[in-house]
């Protein structure tokens, strides 16, 4: 994964895969596990149990290879800047102390460092990433442009990720657990009705729609066409705008006024207007052929 600029370079110096060498002047010390606290503003909210169990098993065998990064608190305890997953796994493994590097930084600097550390990990889901951006901007009074510069990202990337937070909870949960991708989620942003969004989510999952197919589905919905299918019926649900489109085409083809009415149950009526008895005869012939009049004349 590409390394981030800015503060990310400092974190790269602190976290090296498998073999850890502290930067010059940075001493690794051990702290009691109960003196170390997770940060409530941690941007990463998802810690899958299976993944933690695997890390705990590795820690039991090899110990913690990469120290936690912490900052000291006024009450004598230490708050985690980076490494909460290792902290949680250490508790599972039954450790009583953990290796740490203590940094003297402000809350804002700590929040930035924690976010950057998380962003450098490929498994951070887009919703937690967006939550991190939101916290950084809201809690520390930054603009999107300022946040982008501090994080080594473009303002557009920050803005697009933040938009995911406006989705209904069901959609955000599906992004978090990787049922749908961030691309699927972004395609839903044009829809405002939560019920419609939930139906689209169902279509994505049941039909395994690609992002492009989801975008096409959303475009049809925005045009007023409702292409959903009832599981108990093969009939397409019809919106009023779709009926009006059919009425216009039928009227043009038949040369007369056409009215279509539909009920929520899917049934309805088709009304064709005629101007005279001769016009009626012409209409019936066009629909049924002249044979319709053989027995009536």
In short:
The protein is an alpha/beta fold.
How would you describe the overall organization of this protein?
It is a single chain. The protein is of the alpha/beta class. Among the domains are: 80 residues, Conserved hypothetical protein from pyrococcus furiosus pfu- 392566-001, ParB domain; 61 residues, no CATH class; 58 residues, no CATH class. 48% of the residues lie in helices and 11% in strands. It contains 13 helices and seven strands. The strands form two sheets. It has a five-stranded mixed beta sheet with strand order 1-5-3-4-2. Strands 6-7 form a two-stranded antiparallel ribbon. β3 and β4 form a beta hairpin. α6 crosses α7. The longest helix is centred in the middle third of the chain and has 15 residues. It is elongated. The N terminus is likely disordered.
Set down the secondary structure blueprint.
Blueprint: H1 7-14, E1 28-32, E2 36-37, H2 49-62, E3 68-72, E4 78-82, H3 84-93, E5 97-103, H4 107-119, H5 126-140, H6 144-151, H7 155-163, H8 169-176, H9 182-187, H10 194-207, H11 211-222, H12 240-254, E6 258-262, E7 268-272, H13 277-288
Parallel strand pairs: 2-4, 3-5
Antiparallel strand pairs: 1-5, 3-4, 6-7
């Amino acid at each position: 994964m590409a390394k981030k600029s800015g503060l990310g370079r400092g974190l790269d110096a602190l976290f090296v895969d498998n073999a850890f060498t502290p930067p010059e002047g940075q001493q690794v010390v051990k702290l009691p596990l109960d003196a170390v606290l997770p940060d409530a503003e941690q941007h990463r909210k998802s810690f899958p149990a299976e993944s933690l169990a695997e890390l705990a098993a590795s820690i039991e065998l090899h110990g913690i290879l990469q120290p936690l990064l912490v900052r000291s608190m006024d009450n004598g305890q230490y708050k985690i800047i980076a490494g909460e997953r290792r902290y949680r796994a250490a508790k599972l493994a039954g450790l009583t102390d953990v290796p740490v590097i203590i940094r003297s930084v402000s809350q804002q600097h700590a929040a930035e460092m924690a976010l950057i550390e998380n962003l450098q990990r490929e498994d951070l889901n887009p919703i937690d990433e967006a939550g991190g951006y939101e916290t950084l901007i809201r809690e520390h009074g930054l603009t999107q442009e300022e946040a982008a510069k501090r994080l080594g990202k473009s303002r557009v990337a920050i803005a697009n990720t933040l938009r995911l937070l406006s989705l209904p909870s069901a959609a955000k949960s599906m992004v978090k657990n990787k049922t749908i991708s961030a691309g699927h989620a972004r395609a839903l942003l044009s829809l405002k009705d939560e019920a419609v969004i939930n139906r689209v989510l169902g279509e994505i999952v049941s039909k395994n729609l690609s992002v492009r197919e989801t975008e096409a589905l959303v475009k049809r919905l925005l045009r007023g066409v409702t292409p959903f299918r009832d599981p108990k019926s093969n009939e397409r649900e019809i919106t009023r705008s779709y009926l009006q489109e059919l009425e216009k085409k039928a009227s043009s083809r038949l040369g007369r006024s056409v009215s279509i009415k539909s009920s929520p149950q899917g049934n309805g009526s088709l009304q064709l207007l005629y101007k005279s008895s001769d016009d009626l005869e012409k209409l019936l012939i066009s629909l049924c052929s002249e044979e319709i009049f053989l027995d009536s004349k």
